[in-house]
Amino acid sequence: MKFSGKIIISDIDGTYTGSPEGIKRNNEAIEYFKSEGGLFTFASGRVAYNIGTIVPGYDKLVNAPCILCNGSYLYDVPTGKRMNEICLDGPAVMPFLKELHAKYPSVGIRINCRSGYLAATGNEDVYRELKNYFDNVVITPLEEMSTDGWNKIVLAGESAADLEGANAFINEKMPGKFEKSYSCRTMLELLAPGATKGAQVKKLKSLMGNLKTYCIGDYENDENMLASADVSACPSSGLQKIIDMCNYVVCPCTEGAIAGLVEKIEKEL
Description:
It is a single chain. The protein is globular and about 55 Å long. The longest helix has 16 residues, at 20-35. It folds into two domains: 6-85 and 195-268, Rossmann fold; 90-191, Hypothetical Protein, Haloacid Dehalogenase-like Hydrolase, Chain: A, domain 2 (2-Layer Sandwich). The chain is an alpha/beta fold. The strands form three sheets. The protein has a six-stranded mixed sheet with strand order 8-7-6-9-11-10, sandwiched between helices. A five-stranded parallel sheet has the order 2-1-12-13-14. Helix 1 packs parallel to helix 10. It is built from ten helices and 14 strands.
């Protein structure tokens, strides 16, 4: 089978998504890729309890463990089990988080944990936004917040400028204590050291055999995943610095970027 020994690992937002027509074309290409022996999965900032709201039927689309929460864990879809989970040290991080919250009250704080979402009191905008989509959201003072099973901290600003001071403060007070990446201009994500999409690509490869990895993504939080791939790809609609680092540039996400990657793979056979 022509795609045996190959796996495509794709970001979701701005890569798999984009338009109904692009998603339809992607789905058809993914099914073709799998029918010829290929493996397909997602690597996303999304988490196990909400990925299905973004990609309905994703459990039928993937045939390998997903990389979720920007690399906090691998997720085996058939069993619902997390693998190689790398959590933040909540008790150690909490004092710093309180200091950050006091210094930059305009920057919203939300925490992804095993049971759902936590939003700090004073971040009602963050809470309301999450409640538009998810039921498992708890708003609570930082002093009363559980510190168990933190997968990532998300700092949300109304503008990119809102996050600049917070980012500088993190660099000053907690250098090297987080894996940091922007998932969009107004969201900065903090994970435990070693918790990256790229590290989980390597782990997935070690678990599943010596597969040839084709990774596709469009933004800063995909950078280490693309650097870890055997072959990297970016939609032409992606961030320029990501385009510049990739082996392949494919069509925009609105036109079916994953389908464009499958076409590239087939041509190289």
